[in-house]
Write a structure and sequence with these properties.
The complex is a heterodimer.
Chain A: E1 2-10, E2 16-25, E3 30-35, H1 41-48, E4 56-61, E5 64-65, H2 74-79, E6 81-84, H3 96-107, H4 111-124, H5 140-152, E7 158-162, H6 170-185, E8 189-193, H7 197-201, E9 206-211, E10 214-219
Parallel strand pairs in A: 3-8, 3-9, 6-7, 7-8
Antiparallel strand pairs in A: 1-2, 1-4, 4-5, 9-10
Helix pairs in contact in A: 3-4, 3-5, 4-5
Chain B: H1 24-44, H2 46-81, E1 86-90, H3 96-107, E2 112-118, H4 120-129, H5 133-138, E3 148-153, H6 160-171, E4 176-181, H7 183-225, H8 227-235, H9 240-283, H10 294-324
Antiparallel strand pairs in B: 1-3, 1-4, 2-3
The chains are: A alpha/beta, B alpha+beta.
Bound molecules: adenosine-5'-diphosphate and magnesium ion.
Amino acid sequence: MLEFKNVSKQYSNGHEALINLNFTLESGEMSFLTGHSGAGKSTLLRLITRAERCTRGQVLIDGQDLSLLPDKKIPYLRRFMGVVYQSPHLLDDRTVFDNVALPLIIAGVRYQEIGRRVRASLDKVGLLNKEKLYPYALSTGEQQRIGIARAIVNKPPFLLADEPTGNLDPSLSAEIMELFDELHQVGVTVLIASHDLTLIACMQHRILHLKHGYLIKDGL
Amino acid sequence: MKYQFSSQTTVNKLPSINIPQPDIRVYALSHWRALLVSLRRLIHMPLESLTILAVIGIALALPSGLFVLLQNIQKLSLAWDQQTKISLFLKSTVDDAAAMQLVNRLNLENSLAQVNYVSPQQGLDRLSKQVGFTQALGQFNDNPLPGLIEVVPSKAMQLPEALGGLVEQLQKLPEVDVAQLDMAWVKRLHSLLKLSKKGAYALAIFFASAVFLIIGNTIHLAIQNQRREIEVIKLVGGTYAFIRRPFLYRGMLYGFFGAIFAALFITLGLLWLSDTVVELAVEYNSAYTLAGLGWSGLGLLLLSGAVLGVAGAWLAVNHYLRLAD
Ligand SMILES: Nc1ncnc2c1ncn2[C@@H]1O[C@H](COP(=O)(O)OP(=O)(O)O)[C@@H](O)[C@H]1O
Ligand SMILES: [Mg+2]
């Protein structure tokens, strides 16, 4: 599914954010990406969404080298994965429903189908009753969950999350992690960047641990 | 909270990242949505939209209104063309009786199709009926106008060479002070029209560029206002075409509705002129009425507006997307 081969990322200012990473994620696998702030977690995820290009090595998804992916294919790469961002990137002038529907609108899904899928997705994050509200009327935690609903609305086979529980209280965090786990159980490949070590520890999943751009631990 | 995983949760199995096969239904749907989104944005800011549409309308109405006016003048001059007239201004010593004798003699000439006497008094009446002259003429105690005989040459004499000879002949008549061929000013009017048309084309190009830039700039501002939205669309897999589409439609709507405003302005302007024109036409026993834009003119105006709008929007969006890369 996902393979990093000798991947390094140097930002244009000369900073080496990732150094010689090697690992593979199998299809349907769930794993955590941990490390101190500035270790390179977000950078790693940005390489997968092709928001950034690696400067050395290869990032492969289903055997396709992302650095060889032509620019016009990037949107289709992103439709193939759901991404939960640290800040949920919601549109303030659209309702919760319209925010969650955005990936479906982009894919040209029919109206009836959109209603069904958006509600199923909102139901999963427990916010079905908020579909008519605007994002500013929601708490930070609720906004985060709307971001998750949007990430899973088109049922992507691959889910990436960058500190999805950063703004949530512990019990909500646990519930969100449980949601990711359930997605994993129905076959979604899941990669979650997080530094909530206590929460991760009780989940019993593979952990990729970054330190100053090096992958220093890979396993349970 | 409880999560319910039903049959919904089946996962899309995509073997690899590929551009999906083009699907007309998906394509049509996303165009329809882009049109709706752009319409909604226009309605959302009614005052701003109306101002822009009025500005575009004026910019489009100026050159196209000028074309309509020139078209009308040309139509009018064509009507006059058929009727080349020679005006014989009589010497002041020739009284009505002498003039009538001359008219009778001229009526016998084969080279003339029509002969019509306008006495000094009739001439004064004619003038004073025309707006603006009444007061000026009231200041004369004596009628300053000479007698006038208007003759229309027969068909055979309408050729330019023949006309020259005829005018010379008429000029030699003892009663005639000046024989004047009205052709001369019709010709002058024609060349003036030609020149004006050239000017109108230049004006049209100038105002079309202005409309293009106005719409381009409006869309540029709209893009700046929607930068965040564009970023989010990119994050969740929107193509450039998807981002571009609502802006192109918006540009098209500005141009199209702006053109409708222009048509409205032109029609109002013509209505305002037509009163005066009808009065004049009655005066000259003519059934002349002002011609409007016409269906083809209206079609051309709307099409130009829409095309200019799309082009302006295209420039603005592509400029933005290229910078974003
Ligand atoms: N766009 C950028 N340009 C330069 N340096 C960056 C950029 N983004 C991140 N960095 C640097 O790269 C390192 C890794 O950042 P990041 O991947 O955001 O870490 P994490 O998500 O683990 O906190 C940090 O030192 C950060 O300052
Ligand atoms: Mg980060």
